[in-house]
Amino acid sequence: MSTATPGLEVAPILEVDKISKYFGNVIALKDVSMFVRPGEVTCLLGDNGAGKSTLIKTFAGVHKPDEGAYRFEGSEVDFSSPRDALNTGIATVYQDLAMIPLMSIWRNFFLGSEPTKGWGPFRHYDTAFAKEVTRTEMGKMGIDIRDPDQPVGTLSGGERQSVAIARAVYFGAKVLILDEPTAALGVKQAGVVLKYILQAKQRGIGVIFITHNPHHAYPVGDHFVILRRGQIFGDFSKAEVPLEQLVQMMAGGADLEALSHELEQASQSGDPGAEALEQAAAQLAAEAEDAG
Amino acid sequence: MTTQTAPPAAPPPASDADERVRRQTLVSRLLTRPEFGAVVALVLVWVFFAIVAWDNNFVSMTSTAAILNAAAPLGILAIAVALLMIAGEFDLSIGSVVGAAGMAIMLAVTPVSGGGLGWPLLPGLLAALVFSLLVGWFNGLLVIRTRLPSFIITLGTLFIVRGLAVAIPRGWTNRTQLGGLQNTEGYDVIGTLFGTKFAIGGGNFDVAILWMIGLGLVATWVLLRTRAGNWIFGVGGDANAARNVGVPVNKLKIALFMTTALAAFITALIYAVQFNGADSLRGTGLEFRAIIAVVVGGTLLTGGYGSVVGAMLGAVIFAMVQQGIVITGVQGDWFQVFLGGILVLAVIFNNFIRQQATRR
């Protein structure tokens, strides 16, 4: 339940201390504390409705916490807009990526922060520089882009994520918040994105990786924060917790067992989709057993 | 977007040659440019009329001059409309602004005895320019504040401005057509700048053609080689995403609405010089012709993709069809049928090309 051993580690770059957020009578977050250190990956795990989105938006400056403290590099911050957070060095890559499909990679990469050269009325977008930087920055992430002129819409989901991550890193992000970057991806593509997360970590960036898939979190995470019903269920370092236990804790073992039981019953009552359900039930049961 | 310039400083080393990159032929690279469809359409329409109207001298300097002269004012409008449409907005009010700006110029310079203000030309032009820019600013502000579709907002200003262009001159001068621009103090310079004709091989070419080409080059440079141009594409592609990365979406949109209004003012001035006066109803329907030219030129109705050069070519195609129909002696009523057909075909063709381009 404790955080990693003190003394050995660098100070957290981003930290929230007992923050709470209410929407009317709904308690979205209650006394949530978590942190990320430079060069570390903190995984934020939680099922749908656990409060992950609210927490990310608080980090990103979209929401202000109603209670508690938000610290960046040791001093308390109070962001009034996402732009504030971004200028401080907190970059959030959302699921929808903020990319324009019909625009080329290099135009997307520099949108809103275009490099210019020239003077007075002849000041113009330094396109050669933009293309070159796009190519080299993507190269640093370990991918070799085929053609910077290619529209982003022609890239695969994993590649788009990598452009978004490379862009955030290039523009000086010290903390990178990734909202479910692997959610919509196939196995192979998800692996590619995980590789970029490690790349960012190796470059000394603090990464907060939000996911509901412990199988994606475990290989890259340094510690794992589990959010359940708006509260921190636990914060575990990798050494403390094996993958199976993580899966178990995330969904709640008892819930998983109950679900597999229900599915089994449904399949026995002779529904048309019975066979598929039966398989799903078997799989769930196996997973619950593993975890338990 | 820009395939023509490879960065001179950054040729990838030969060892980095990527097996995933298919070497594209020149043709397939051309296919991915938004104005490609317009070039094809231009050639097809020209060949069609060159054959059908050969005996009527379609292929001649006279005929070419007539086409380009008709294309120029429309092209100037289409250039600005293309920028606005790439940014994802419409401006239906520009036809009315052409009429109103012309009347504003004429009201200012008409002698007091005739109900006007009796000003010299330059202050008159300035007043008309300020009026036009105010209409554009108002359009942009309303679109941003209300978050309503610009189609509806500018449809409203279309009628408001046209109404003003009729009502105010009639109230002041009791007329809706005002002439005598040439007699105004300070006309010489303006007349030369906007009304000169060049005789080349039997054709009389308007100086307005040069204005169109010049403005088109400037707009192309802005679109492809400046920050504002990048923002225009970004805002049209996804305004929210653009806002999230710090693009000043609202300012940009207001500036673009003011740009279309500015183009309407220039067009009004060219017409005023050509016709030696103004008419309250001048420019009626011009907003739709400009949109047709832009769409035929390869710009997406939904924004985020398009070309200024294409919009100019679209204007030339438009004028070519008009001239072709007139010259072949087909009854003029068929013009609209032909035009509508070309519009639909061009959109289908462009859509197909764009799908090919993004699939590669």
Q: Say what oligomer this is.
A: heterodimer
User: Topology as H/E string of chain B?
Assistant: HHHHHHEHEEHHHHEHHH
Tell me the strand order in the biggest sheet of chain A: 6-9-10-3-11-12
Distance between the termini of chain B: 14 Å
The CATH architecture designation of chain B is Orthogonal Bundle
Counting DSSP H or I runs of 4 or more residues, the number of helices of chain B is: 14
Strand content of chain A: 15-25%
Q: Specify the helix fraction band of chain A.
A: 25-40%
The level 1 CATH classification of chain B is: Mainly Alpha
How far apart, in Å, are the first and last alpha carbons of chain A?
18 Å
Shape call of chain A: globular
- Overall strand count of chain A: 12
Relevant CATH superfamily of the largest domain in chain A: P-loop containing nucleotide triphosphate hydrolases
Give a quick precis of the structure.
Helices cover 39% and strands 23% of the residues of chain A. Chain A is of the alpha/beta class and 292 residues long.
